[in-house]
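Reading a protein record of the kind used here takes only a little practice. Each token is a code from a learned vocabulary of local backbone shapes. With that in mind, consider the following protein and its fold in token form:
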Amino acid sequence: MNGFWSRLSSLLGEGWSWVGASAGVLLLAGIALVLAGLPVNRRPTLDDRLEPYLRDTPRPSTLLSRPTPPRGPFGFGELFAPYVAKLGAGVGSALGGAPSVARRQLRAGQPADVDRFRAEQVMSGAVGALVGLLFTAVIAVAQRRFPLPVLVSMVLVGVLGGVAGRDYLLSRAAARREARMLTEFPTVAELLALAVSAGEGAVGALERVCRLSHGELSDELRRCLADARAGANLPTALQGLADRTGLMSLTRFVDGIVVAVERGTPLAEVLRAQAQDVREDGRRTLMEEGGKKEIYMMVPIVFLTLPVTVLFALYPGLSFLHLKL
């Protein structure tokens, strides 16, 4: 009976320690928010003071603007947005690579907004830290003690994993989009060649192909046509397509169209040759992937099937020798 009461009192003591720690963290967070909201910490920066004098057009009245929806539930997004922006700037200064991030965003079909990506990295790091806290809580419940080194290490691993995972997802999205564009490229190139062979010009062929096709490459060509209609010449608009993607095939495609438009060379033959080159590259890529998959298929055979086969072959003899001994 005494052991039961001592165990219950120890469990209650651990529970009250968790409650006290949680209350302390909430108190510190509230004090930090109060200090951050003081007028002395909300002074306008130099950029804010110079912005009204450097803009080309005056700021419109706020009465005519539509209210923006709150970012996050119960308006918490508005509350934490400045802190997320500051943390994102810190992550950007620590990691660097803003031009690489902007280029990968363009390759993924997203607007080049490095600040938004850094904020997403901060949120991903916060989610990783929460996962680390939950994992530490499970360990603490299992071991009935609070492992502080495990907490610190799991939180750090979660934060770094969240930040690196968001960067990996961006690179993966860019690679997938470029793979879809590369798949669509031969068909689009042959359609352009047919339209040019029928007597249409480069702009008319692009408009016809954009009307008849759908996909990532067609969207990029529509963007090029929109730039051309906005005032840029066609070679400059197509060069923007080559700059937004990281595919050498599309770069050669754009160079071929630009040379054909500027010098008057036959465009249909160039497009057909490029479509054939892309198909040959696709065949080589499939052969390489098939060779890699064949090697991967040998892993379960060598490490699983072969040992089990050897064990079945040797076990009867070994058991017979054991009985003889």
Remarks:
- The chain has a mean pLDDT of 77.
- The radius of gyration is 31 Å.
